[in-house]
Amino acid sequence: MKVIGVTGPIGSGKSTVSRILSEAGAFIIDADKIAKEVVCKGKKAYQELIDYFGRGILNPEEELDRKKLAAIVFGDNEKLQAINGIVHKYVVEEIIEQIDKLMTDKSYDLVVLDMPIPVKHGFIDIADEIWVVTADKETRISRIMKRNGFDREEALRRINAQMSEEEYLKLADHVILNNGSEKQLGEKIRDLLKKI
């Protein structure tokens, strides 16, 4: 079983790459999806977040209010590090459990870790190779605006809040430049799959 780590900056097209790999028969482990699950009411990360940030981060149904939490941590690096530290350890725990199960089952030849933030433990140390998806800045801005309904300024803020493209590229075994159509992207991925 081969494990490919797919990462890259916001708006680069990581999710599209993962979907194309899924269509090619890969099992996808989506870190964003797991991150949403581990903060649900009753889960360990949920309680740790309340302990750290207080009950003001909850909505009337006692579920995590993502918008409130985002507003608290946005622009505050210390609080952002705190939330990442709390959530990531549970995401990594779940990823490792899934990988172990898949290795035992032997039901997939290819597993893809879709991870926006390329953490060392639970991503870099698990993946056999890292694929970094990238696109030029204007393309990324346009995609973020279209997908999220953001204005240009908000899209740029999201881009600037992340690791730089150079930091992502340093980790890459393969770089997928995604400035074109989905068809072109699919061709690039198929070529990479032939090499591995």
Task: Give an overview of the whole structure.
There is one protein chain. The protein has 196 residues and is of the alpha/beta class. The chain has 2 domains: 1-26 and 111-196, P-loop containing nucleotide triphosphate hydrolases (Rossmann fold), CATH 3.40.50.300; 35-107, no CATH class. Helices cover 57% and strands 13% of the residues. It has helices at residues 14-23, 31-38, 44-53, 66-73, 77-105, 120-124, 137-148, 152-160, 165-170, 182-195; strands spanning 2-7, 27-30, 110-114, 129-134, 174-177. It has a 5-stranded parallel β-sheet, sandwiched between helices. Helix 7 (137-148) crosses helix 8 (152-160). The longest helix has 29 residues, at 77-105. The chain is globular and about 50 Å long. The mean pLDDT is 93.
Give the SSE map.
Blueprint: E1 2-7, H1 14-23, E2 27-30, H2 31-38, H3 44-53, H4 66-73, H5 77-105, E3 110-114, H6 120-124, E4 129-134, H7 137-148, H8 152-160, H9 165-170, E5 174-177, H10 182-195
Parallel strand pairs: 1-3, 1-4, 2-3, 4-5
Number of strands: 5
CATH architecture of the largest domain: 3-Layer(aba) Sandwich
> Count of helices?
10
CATH topology category name of the largest domain: Rossmann fold
Low-confidence stretches: none
Order of helices and strands: EHEHHHHEHEHHHEH
Strands of the widest sheet, in order across it, are 2-3-1-4-5
What is the percent of helical residues? Answer: 55-70%
CATH class of the largest domain: Alpha Beta
Radius of gyration, in angstroms, nearest whole number = 17 Å
**How many domain regions?**
2
Roughly what is the average pLDDT, rounded to an integer? 93
First-to-last CA distance: 11 Å
**Strand-pairing-aware structural class:** alpha/beta
